[in-house]
Amino acid sequence: MLHHVQSHPRFRGRGVGAALMNHARQIARDEMELEQLHLAARAGMGLEEFYGRLGWKEIGRWPGALRLGPGDDRDEILMVLDPL
């Protein structure tokens, strides 16, 4: 299980996040022999597009599931990577 994976904002756009996710995919497929991975991401951060470029597909949302502050409720985006 990977939990709360993120890159530092100053280093975004350099391929660090994609490299981390691709390595996790490789371990899941080659070492753990998994067939798919699931993740939940916070809406409103452009993460749908980031993960979409890596092959992840949105499979659902929990509207307003994440409260970041008063009046700042975000959907939780559920995604799957299948096949690995």
TrEMBL record:
InterPro entries: Acyl_CoA_acyltransferase (IPR016181), GNAT_dom (IPR000182). It holds the Pfam family Acetyltransf_7. One of its GO terms (molecular function) is acyltransferase activity, transferring groups other than amino-acyl groups. Transmembrane segments: none annotated. Residues 1-84 form the N-acetyltransferase domain. Keywords: Transferase. This is Acetyltransferase (GNAT) family protein. It comes from the Bacteria.
